């Protein structure tokens, strides 16, 4: 996605200073996840039914809505796509479970238990789903059918991990730290979780090298990392070794909190799920689409 030039001492990444806003999907109930597949955009909202809205990727017209769960107790947390199996995975806080929505089979839904709070999801190169469980500092890996394959215990210093992505080389990129935590940062960890390879951030703050709740991640084909900085209301670009590059989306462009990211490398689009700071059932959200 980005052109890179490396030397033994430095690297350069060529990208516009800021992404350009090209569209905004409608405001409504809070958006908990967004992804795209086969010419369609899938948007997950926090509501009782018709939770997944399906839009045309070119016109952004609403095509249909899909219901994941028919119970009013459903509380979605995140959504991620598996292109290999033609499905999306959806985290559910109330049931502490994951729902699998088969987008190629007229919206067939299955589910399995996580037995912990499934805050965020991603899919690795083996086509397994990774569930980040912040309260217990664990990443759980599940198969397509919900078989628990392994649990990766994170360092005690990785306080409140929000989201984890496994790179093609097997390393994990994890963002962690809340409003009152002493450390807010992004870490690259070894494939067995035994040590931290690189990190960016530290004491929470609003400077270029700081975060105030780094909440969600996206990684491009060249291993550059995009970070949704929730309370600083911006999206930051890091190099493959987690060095600061620049802001891709600024506070002025967002105004509200970036809750989830999805990077469409084919169309060079960044989808940012934005949450307005309202309370409880009044929470509202939309998706801002940026050309990058």
Task: List its salient traits.
Thrombin, subunit H; 1 helix; 53% strand; globular; mainly beta; four-stranded antiparallel β-sheet; disordered N terminus; 292 residues; single chain
Please provide a written account of the structure.
By secondary structure, this protein is mainly β. It has a domain of 88 residues: Thrombin, subunit H (Beta Barrel). Helices cover 1% and strands 53% of the residues. Strands 3-26-25-24 form a 4-stranded antiparallel sheet, with no helix packed on it. The longest helix is centred in the C-terminal third of the chain and has 4 residues. It starts with a strand and ends with a strand. The N terminus is likely disordered.
Question: In this structure, how is the largest beta sheet organized?
Answer: 4 strands, antiparallel
Sum up the overall morphology in one term.
globular
Structural class estimated from helices and strands: mainly beta
The strand count comes to 26
Residue ranges: pLDDT <50 for 5 or more in a row?
1-16
Count of DSSP H/I helices: 1
Rounded to the nearest angstrom, the radius of gyration is 18 Å
Instruction: Identify the CATH class of the domain at 168-255.
Output: Mainly Beta
CATH structural architecture of the domain at 168-255: Beta Barrel
**Beta-strand residue fraction:** over 45%
What's the rounded overall pLDDT mean?
90
Sequence of strands across the biggest β-sheet: 3-26-25-24
Spell the H/E element sequence: EEEEEEEEEEEEEEEEEEEEEEEHEEE
Within the CATH hierarchy, at the fold level, what is the topology of the domain at 168-255?
A: Thrombin, subunit H
What gap, in angstroms, lies between the N and C termini? 9 Å
């Amino acid at each position: 996605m980005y052109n890179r030039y490396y030397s033994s001492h430095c690297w350069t990444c060529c990208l516009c200073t800021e992404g350009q806003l090209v569209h905004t999907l409608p405001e409504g109930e809070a958006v908990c996840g967004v992804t795209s597949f086969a010419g369609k955009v899938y948007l997950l909202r926090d509501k009782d039914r018709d939770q997944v809205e399906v839009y045309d990727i070119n016109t952004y017209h609403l095509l249909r809505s899909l219901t994941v769960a028919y119970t009013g107790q459903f509380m979605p947390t995140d959504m991620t796509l598996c292109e290999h199996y033609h499905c999306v995975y959806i985290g559910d806080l109330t049931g502490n479970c994951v729902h699998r929505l088969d987008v190629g089979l007229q919206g067939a839904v299955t589910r399995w238990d996580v037995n912990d709070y499934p805050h965020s999801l991603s899919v690795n190169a083996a086509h397994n789903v990774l569930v980040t469980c912040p309260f217990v500092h664990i990443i759980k890996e599940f198969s397509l059918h919900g078989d628990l394959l392994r649990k990766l215990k994170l360092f005690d210093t990785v306080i409140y991990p929000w989201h984890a992505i496994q790179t093609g080389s097997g390393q994990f990129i994890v963002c962690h730290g809340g409003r009152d935590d002493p450390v807010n940062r992004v870490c690259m960890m070894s494939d067995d979780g035994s040590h931290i390879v690189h990190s960016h951030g530290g004491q929470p703050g609003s400077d270029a090298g700081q975060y105030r709740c780094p909440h969600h991640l996206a990684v491009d084909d060249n291993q550059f990392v995009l970070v949704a900085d929730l309370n600083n209301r911006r999206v930051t670009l890091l190099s493959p070794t987690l060095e600061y590059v620049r802001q891709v989306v600024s506070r002025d462009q967002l105004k509200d909190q970036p809750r989830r990211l999805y990077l469409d490398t084919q169309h060079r689009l960044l989808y940012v799920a934005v949450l307005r700071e309202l309370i409880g059932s009044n929470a509202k959200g939309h998706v801002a689409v940026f050309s990058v």
